[in-house]
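Ticket #4471: structure output looks truncated?

Reporter: J.K.
Steps to reproduce: submitted the chain below (354 residues) through the standard prediction queue, then opened the result file.
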Amino acid sequence: MPWIDREAYLALVKGTTRGPFAALARLGLSVLSQGYSVGAWARNRAFDQGGRRVHNAAVPVISVGNLTLGGTGKTPMVEWLARRARRDGVRVAVLSRGYGTSTGLNDEGRVLEENLPDVPHLQGPDRVGLARIAVDELESQLILLDDGFQHRRLARDLDIVLLDALDPFGLGRLFPRGLLREPVSSLRRAQIVVLSRADLVDGGRRAAIRAQAERKADKRVWVEARHTPLDLLDSDGAARPIAELAGKRVVAFCGIGNPEGFRRTMEGIGVAPVAFVVFPDHHAYDRRNIEDLTGLAAREQADLVLTTQKDLVKVRAPRLGPTPLLALRIGLEVLEGGDSLERAVAEVLAHCPA
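Returned output as attached by the reporter:
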């Protein structure tokens, strides 16, 4: 939601902003949510009953998506799937809408391009057309549909939906009163539910999330995963060990859907930033932003500035003033349900054309 202040919006919908005007605003958002709910229901019903056409690709399709606005860790999941397919020698292409850019690849696309140089990434609103290009021109044998749960025009052989353990159900309300893109009961369309950032909550909370999901959508294949810090990257893509952060004064910033997840990941590797700046998701950094961050690093006498890989591919600077700029690269580690996930993916891969 780049057109509003994220922190102010979250404070409003969470109820931490008080007063008569805030209450009136929440009432207005609740009314808008009713209209959004009707629209989502009508759209899904049209696809379910054949009123809107679903197109089949010439090769198997795996969709990775979520229920909520904001980041749930889809990009690491897509990367995990692509690496799994390439391990079997399957040519794979990634298709996505490309939010946050009007030309070229967006930030997630550039991250995948950097981490998966042998996997083409096509972006655009017509993913049915992109699927034809992937098969006919790129000879892809498998399509990964990034952020595809709500994109129902393209049929899929496996639907994987991620729930973020830090906020799995989008405050329990549909947008704009909450962060849900569609009701939790829509999980019935998925075959696999992945609880991402599962390591950031305790076992009781994980069990409660699973129970709530199953009450709404029956039992699905359940997988729990964490975002594992892999290494540090500089602007040239060279990797450095995470141990280089030890004892350093760090200023951090990000412009991602779930900045709290980044903060908690830093905590997990022993980094307590002396300053942490949050920008909107898919933020396009300008000269003023860079100057502000450079000044902040200087005032805080930082040894380095740390950000996410999604942000580094947009800033593309080796340092901010005299202070080195590095990104923390993240990978997906499956903690529970790995055998079930592997079986489901292997079954799809077995149907890829030779």
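Triage note (M.O.): checked the attachment and the full token line is present. The chain has a mean pLDDT of 93.
Status: closed, working as intended.
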